[in-house]
Amino acid sequence: MPDKSLKEKLKNKFANLFELPKDVVLDLPHISMVGNIEFHLENHKGIIEYEENLIRIRIHKGQVLISGKELMIEELTKVEVKIKGHIQDVIFKYH
User: Fold this and answer.
1) Position 57 in a domain
2) CA-CA distance, 65 to 55, in Å (whole number)?
């Protein structure tokens, strides 16, 4: 069985060869923001922590931390999360 890094390299080449979206093929998060007031994440793995000033979201091989003021989850589905508030920091932690 190939190791994980080889498997991911093959997936990456596959995505490039067939011009497929890497976020889908490699199970990567897709993130967009509107200024510092709206954060949208696709392909999440669940909410880890939810407070008014900090939201932690699980992603493939890590997590995303959003800190700010008056943060709230406006929309949450199996694959998407939309956060509104006064966003001050967005931090990626991979392991």
Assistant:
1) yes
2) 6
Domain limits for position 42 = 28-94
Residue 7 lies in a domain: no
Helices (H), the chain: 4-17, 22-25
Rounded to two decimals, the pTM is 0.79
Task: Determine the Cα–Cα distance for residues 29 and 47; give it in Å rounded to an integer.
Answer: 14
Tokens 């699980």 sit on residue: 58
Domain presence at residue 51: yes
Whether residue 79 is contained in a domain is answered as yes
**Residue 71: both structure tokens together:** 């943060």
Contacts of 49 (CB under 8 A, 6+ apart): 55, 56
C-alpha–C-alpha distance, residues 69 and 44, integer Å = 22
Could you report the per-residue pLDDT of 21-60, keeping only the tens digit for each? 566 555 789 999 999 999 999 999 999 999 999 999 999 9
Give the DSSP H/E element, type plus range, for residue 57. Answer: strand 54-59
Tell me what pLDDT residue 26 has.
55
